[in-house]
Amino acid sequence: MVSDFRKKKYVHVFTTFFDTNKSGTIDKKDFDLSKEQIAKLRGWKAGEPTYKILEDTLSQLWEGLQGADANKDGEVSVDEWVAVWDNYAKNPSAAAEWQSLYARFVFQLEDGSNDGSIDSEEFSSVYAAFGYDKAEAVEAFKKLAGGKAKVTWPEFEQLFKEYFSTDDVNAPGNFLFGKTSF
Ligand SMILES: [Ca+2]
Ligand SMILES: [Ca+2]
């Protein structure tokens, strides 16, 4: 049974980063909109290799997400989304391929300078590009990084697991998606 706390965290990622057109469900159209938002943020144009990589990664994520569509209606509902992450929480090391890909994708997206770590500005500017409050993301980064200037990939990978699996309200991983309180 999923706790209220974890459910709120899952719904935050659903609403802010997956249901980008705010229709109440996740479908292919959300991924098309994400692609445009990310390409705009990075200045990538259709036909460029970076744009193609983005396109391929998003289509792999969308394909992987089909496993979450329990009633096979072509959309992932909030309940279906919560169910897959509740399942993930039972054993994060047995994550589905798309869940691991998603972790890597978020890290690479946020590591705008591509130096293998994320700083506060990189972190918060990605959240701002998704229409999220930048100041809150800056606060969240402080808590996430525990006062350090940067978060590396091995740290990020752990924080990602923590975000989706922990019920500890004081865990730093809770701040991975830019929100300071649930
Ligand atoms: Ca949607
Ligand atoms: Ca569905």
TrEMBL record:
**Which InterPro entries does this entry report, sorted A to Z?**
EF-hand-dom_pair, EF_Hand_1_Ca_BS, EF_hand_dom
Q: Which residues form the signal peptide?
A: none
Swiss-Prot/TrEMBL keywords: Calcium
Q: Which domain of life is it from?
A: Eukaryota
- Domain EF-hand residues, every copy: 56-91, 98-133
Which Pfam families does this entry report, sorted A to Z? EF-hand_5
Protein name stated in the entry:
EF-hand domain-containing protein
Species annotation: Loxostege sticticalis
